[in-house]
Every structure is written in C-alpha cells, then in structure tokens.
Amino acid sequence: MTDSPARILRPGQTIGILGGGQLGRMLAEAASALGLKVHVHCPEAGSPAFDVAARHTLAAYDDLDALDAFAAAVDVVTYEFENVPGPTAAHLASRVPVRPGPRALAVAQDRLSEKDFLAAAGIALAGYAAIDTLSDLTQALARFGGKGVLKTRRFGYDGKGQVMIRDASAAAEAFTSLGGAGLVLEALIPFEKEVSVVAARSVTGEVAAYDITENHHEHHILKTSTVPAKVSPGTAAAARQIAGQILTALDYVGVIGVEMFVVGTGADEHLLVNEIAPRVHNSGHWTQDACLVSQFEQHVRAVAGWPLGSAARHSDVVMENLIGAEVDAWQTILTEPAARLHLYGKAESRPGRKMGHVNRIAPRS
Amino acid sequence: MTDSPARILRPGQTIGILGGGQLGRMLAEAASALGLKVHVHCPEAGSPAFDVAARHTLAAYDDLDALDAFAAAVDVVTYEFENVPGPTAAHLASRVPVRPGPRALAVAQDRLSEKDFLAAAGIALAGYAAIDTLSDLTQALARFGGKGVLKTRRFGYDGKGQVMIRDASAAAEAFTSLGGAGLVLEALIPFEKEVSVVAARSVTGEVAAYDITENHHEHHILKTSTVPAKVSPGTAAAARQIAGQILTALDYVGVIGVEMFVVGTGADEHLLVNEIAPRVHNSGHWTQDACLVSQFEQHVRAVAGWPLGSAARHSDVVMENLIGAEVDAWQTILTEPAARLHLYGKAESRPGRKMGHVNRIAPRS
After folding, report:
1. CATH 3.30.470.20 placement within chain B
2. How much is the pLDDT for B155?
3. Nearest-CA neighbor of A273 among A81, A158, A141, A128?
C-alpha cells in the first residue's frame, strides 16, 4: 500500500507503534488524548507502553505472521527507536503507511549513510571518514590531528559502540575492539556546547521546530536539557533552520531529533550537526510542560496525517533525566511546586536505565 | 481493610477506577504519566477508558465476584461518577481503600443529604425543601414565591430528573412526572453567574483549590468554562475557601467539583453553593492546559496518597465542550494555534453526548 495520496486518520483509528519503551508510552498517552487508539508491537514482555495501549503484540520484529496481523490491525505505523530492522520496516510499508518512511530510517540507522546524506544536503558536519581497515583508520587519524572518536556505523547509543582515540598508537586496539569493520571515525570537535533541536514535519510538508535546547551528558547519557540555550539569536535561528532543512531533504513525516555542537564564540559561533534520531527525542521531553503541544502530540499529529500544532514555548524549563536509583527521589520531587514528574512505569531500576524525568518550569525569561 | 494509617502507593502500583468514560480515560492518562497502572471496572463494552488501562474488568457494579477480583488486583479504588451504588462502594471499602470515601459518595449522590450536610457545615445555599408529598410541595412553593426547581434526590445529571415550576398550578403535574416521592424543591435563584471551583484534598489534609471558573450551559449541559471568571477578588477567594471547607468537613481525599451561583452585584456579590460532585469535574478540564498540574494528575496524586501539586494557573483559558456533532470540527480546531483538542475516543457521536473538548489558551491577563 503506498502512502500517496497521504492517508489521514480519523479519531478512533489506530496508530501502530514499533517498540514499547518510555517513548512509546508517552506517544500512547498523547494519542489517547487526541481520541486515537494505539497498538504496540514489541518483543519484550512487560514493556512500559503496553499499559496504555488498547492492544499490544508480544512478538519478534522478524515474525512475519505477527507483522502481517499488526499491519492489518492498524492505520499507520510509527516507531519509537531507530534500530527497527530494515526488512521489518519494508515488510510493513508494503501493507500500511510507515511514518517516518523507511528511507529516513535507513539513513539514520547507519552513521556513515547519515553523514553522507547530511553532507550532500549541504549541512555542516564535523570531519568524518569511513573506516573498514586499519589503514583507513591510520590515514583518517593523520588527517584529524591524530585524534577522533571511532564508532560503529550501526546500533550505537548512550556511548555504546564507540571508543575515543587520543593518540594514534591506540588506533589498532580501538579498531579491533569495535569489530574491525563497518566503522566511522569522527574528528574531535573542540565544542562549546552540545545542543539539539526537535522538529516535526507533516504529510503536507509543513515544518514546526521547537526552541534549541542545551544538553548536558553524564557517562554518555543525557542528564539535563535546558531551554533557553545560551546561544546567540542567530545560532538559535540557524539551528531550527537546519532541522527544517534536514526534514525536507528526507521528505520526512513525524518528529526528528537533531543533535548539534556549538563551535566557536562571539561572531565565530556556529553549528555542526552531530547526529539525527528519526523519532521523538529525550532532549524534547521538556516540551511536555513548557509548550502547549508536546513533541509526543506533534509526532502523533504528523503520523496521523493531521496538521502540526504550535511549537511555541510558554515557559523556561530544565529537563532532568532520572537514571537508575535517582528515581528514588520521586517523593521529594512531587513536593517541588514548579516540578512536573514523569515516570515510565518500569518495574526495576538498574544503573544507567532511564526511569523517568522531571521538568522544572520557570516563567519565560 | 481500613485506610488508617493512610496507604501510600509506590510507582508501578495500580489505581482501580469505577467507570470507564472520558473522566476515567483522562485519569488513566494522568496516572500513566506518573508511572502508575490503571485497572478500570465498568459494565459497558468499548468504554473509552479501557483503551488506556493496563487491565479492565467488564462486569456489573453488583457482581460481587468481579468486585472481589478487582479489589484484589488494585491498591486503591476511586471512581469517575457519583452514582456508584452504595453497596458496591461499601463492599470494596472493606477490602481496599476507596477514595474519596464512601461517606462523601453517600452525601453527594443524594441531593437532600448533600444540602443538609452543606447547611450543617455552615455553607450558604439556596433555599430547599424535602418533597415527599404533594402537600410538601405546595407548602414549599408558598415559601419560595410559587416558583422553584423540583429535582429527584438521586441520579439526576445534565438536566435529567428535574422540572422547572414557574407557577403553583403546575405543581401536581411536575410532582407526578418525577415519581411523586424522593424529591427536593430548590428555590429559584436570581443569579448573575454560574461558577465552580475544582479543588483537591490529600490524605494528610492538604488542600489545593484551582481558580474559580465561570460556566455557561446550553440545554442543561456545560458548554464553556472561562478562567478567569468575572467576579471580585473577594468572591474568587471566598469560592476557593468554601471548596476547602467542604473538603475538610467531608474528610475528603481526591478532587471535588463545587458548583455555585454568584448572586448580587458590587458590594452585594456573594456565593450560594448549588451542588457538589465527588470526582474530577467537567468544569476543571481547563486545568489540563492552563496549569502545570491538571485536575486529573491532582486526583491521581491524592488517591495515591501522594502530596498535591500546585494548583497555580499560568494562562487564561476558555474550555469548550464538543457535544454531539460539534466534534466534526476537529480538523479545524487542530489548525488553531492556541487551541488544544481533547477527544475521548467514543466510536459514535449522538446528540447531547460529550465527545471531546477544546481548551483555548491566552497569556495570563
């Protein structure tokens, strides 16, 4: 089934979501508020999104019979993680609209394809090189001053699948540790800040970008997102423009997260794109409480074929992830007058596991 | 099982909700965002709240086996409608905390008990009289200037179960049409405005009241709620104080809706309580988009034994109910920048049926 003319859902119809984590759960909450049903497909029993879905399928992503039944039961398919297997997306897309489309997924789940795509679209990136042999790595390190971050092309997240190389003598060990092929070397950027933009595009090509967010990571996991980011108005506008440019170049439908580095200061301040995530994004959770329309509602609107909502922000906000045992502070957070607690319903906290987040709100500065 | 000391839920535990309509659905969305599970008990197949509940029981309210299983599966019970049968509430309350408690339910589901309770608590009401005979009615009409609204003591809502009497000659017919016993006559009040206050009380006795709301009804069904209401600051403060007084007098846990009349103007402006609803209230739907903590989150916090959130309002707002075919305007409403659409997932629109609502937001005046 093609998606042309674009399918528009009616209230009461069903969004299928691949993946049952907290992003799927918050998408389901947003879909429910708009009168839509949700059907979650996920191979993990007890997934957080199951609790708020009208239906769920507990099956592997390569279970074709389960996928066929899922496709027949839903009116559009979306996903909450970028590592949806390509054959899964293709199989579903032949039966029901998949939004964002399989092409955006293919581009975003391979670091090299993603960087090549962004470079071809005229987006400024840090230097990078495809690495398939130790010789590739040696040559690329020489170009990048002997330093860089070596990453797997696929399946990396939260610092997994990457090794920092600060000296060329460490190259061979790093190369071997990551499997010795299918890698990308990224030049080390002396950045001032890590920022991101969450933006959406509708089936009609309408774009809405939220304000740029300043992000702080701990142990390679996002810890806080602060809005407004301390960047110049020009940089803030450029960040949103870049996100829109990427959305349009991908003929994208849904919400995207675009991570960027702020490099230079004063008149030299500029942006380099780090990576994109073809889904709602952790650095956009602040929109739940500082905007009228959250990134989750925005994604639901987009994939339903509906017009986007306003991405305007009414408050300043700091989003803090509650990771592992940090969630034990929930009772204290509930007593903070300007805090809104969001918990994901995960039965067990483990080190590094995202258990919830809190948005701390202040009047707009 | 008694509720003393008060049971406090942990994230991951389950709130049982009696009733599966839109109020239950929005409670379930709010509970999910706080990491709680929901189990809905409702006798109607396809109930809107089922779609966002981790579990549901499709059974009658007097099915004791089903109630026992429900009580065993949940950690606290609440309800989304005031006509929960007393024996149902009592049966559950012997097994699991029921919040608000059975006493609040008993008071609120009988107009005469409610008025007697409020009067005993020192709350100003319009004149009323218990009517069990035609003679009662004739005498009461004489006291109230020959006019009044005759209502059934139980099961009235949205204008059902009531007859306006404008002339004593119509008394007999009105009396007969409402069953000829178990009635209340309310004096006709020359009110300036209909207003309401939604407020909450926690297990520790903490009270949080939202701003007073000005309500407009059409065909006895709430059509709009506007905040701020055009009343004096003194009246606004008095309204919240009255709501708190009622909550405390009932030893209440959860959200209550208190409907009032504004009578008189200028220095004579004052309030008379019309009725209370022991649940989240349609005139509080504006809190979803004009406050950090909605009435639904507030009710969830209260019944979970958690501290209340701030009832502060960050925006002005007009809530409009979408009744019957009005919901067909959903696509247009989605394009309004300052509007947030809420749909209830009801399969079929019928005249008088509440299908959704829209909150139209403006900066705080």
Report:
1. 193-363
2. 76
3. A128
List of E strands, B233-323:
254-263, 270-277, 315-323
A297 carries a ligand binding annotation:
no
- CB–CB contact B52 A32 (8 Å): yes
Residue numbers of chain B with a pLDDT score lower than 70: 1-5, 156-159
What are the residues whose beta carbons fall under 8 Å from the beta carbon of B340, sequence distance 6 or more? Answer: A292, A293, A309, B288, B289, B358, B359, B361
Nearest to B342 among A25, A26, A33 (CB): A33
Q: Residue B43: which residues within 8 A CB-CB, separation 6 or more?
A: B58, B59, B60, B61
Domain covering B127-186, topology:
Dna Ligase; domain 1 (3.30.1490)
Chain-chain contact of B29 with A52 (C-beta, under 8 angstroms): yes
Task: Name residue A162's amino acid.
Answer: Q
- Can you say how many angstroms the Cα of residue A297 is from the centroid of all Cα atoms in its chain? 15
Task: Give the separation between CA A353 and CA A349, rounded to whole angstroms.
Answer: 6
Strands B183-186 and B162-165: unpaired
Out of B35, B289, B341, whose CB is closest to A344? B35
- Cα–Cα distance measured from residue A35 to residue B347, given in angstroms and rounded to the nearest whole number: 9
Which residues in chain A have their CB less than 8 angstroms from residue B49's CB? none
3-class DSSP state for residue B42? strand
List the alpha helices (DSSP H) in chain A: 22-33, 64-73, 86-93, 102-108, 111-120, 134-143, 171-177, 233-249, 287-290, 295-303, 330-334
d(CA A312, CA A345): 29
B345, A315: Cβ pair inside 8 Å?
no
Q: What is the pLDDT of residue A6?
A: 85
Instruction: Please count the CA atoms within 13 angstroms of the CA of B108 that sit on its side-chain side.
Output: 28
- The Cα of B141 is separated from the nearest Cα of chain A by a number of Å equal to 46
The SS3 call for residue B339 is strand
Domain boundaries for CATH 3.30.1490.20 within chain B: 127-186
pLDDT of residue A4: 55
- Residue A160 is assigned to a ligand binding site: yes
Average confidence score pLDDT of chain A: 95
Of the partner residues A32, A309, A342, the one whose CB lies closest to the CB of residue B29: A32
Q: Is B345 close to A36, i.e. CB distance below 8 A?
A: yes
Predicted confidence at residue B2, as pLDDT, reads 46
The reply to whether residue B344 touches residue A292, judged by beta carbons under 8 angstroms, is no
B336: its two tokens: 């309004």
User: What pLDDT is recorded for position B140?
Assistant: 95
Residues of chain A with pLDDT under 50: 1-2
pLDDT confidence of residue A81:
95
Question: Tens digit of pLDDT for each residue in A249-308?
Answer: 999 999 999 999 999 999 999 999 999 999 999 999 999 999 999 999 999 999 999 999
Q: Domain A193-363 adopts which CATH fold?
A: D-amino Acid Aminotransferase; Chain A, domain 1 (3.30.470)
Q: How far out from the chain centre does Cα B2 lie?
A: 25
B19/A12 Cα distance (integer angstroms): 20
Name the average pLDDT for chain B: 95
CATH fit for domain B14-98, picks 3.90.400.10, 3.30.230.10, 3.80.10.10, 3.40.50.20:
3.40.50.20
Could B289 and A289 be called an inter-chain contact, meaning their C-beta atoms sit closer than 8 Å? no
Tokens encoding B24: 């239950």
For the segment B300-309, what is each residue's pLDDT rounded down to a tens digit?
999 999 999 9
ipTM beyond 0.90?
yes
Is residue B222 part of an annotated ligand binding site? no
Render pLDDT for B287-331 as a digit per residue (tens, 0 to 9): 999 999 999 999 999 999 999 999 999 999 999 999 999 999 999
Main-chain dihedrals φ then ψ at residue A130, nearest 5 degrees: -70, 135
Span(s) in chain B for CATH 3.40.50.20: 14-98
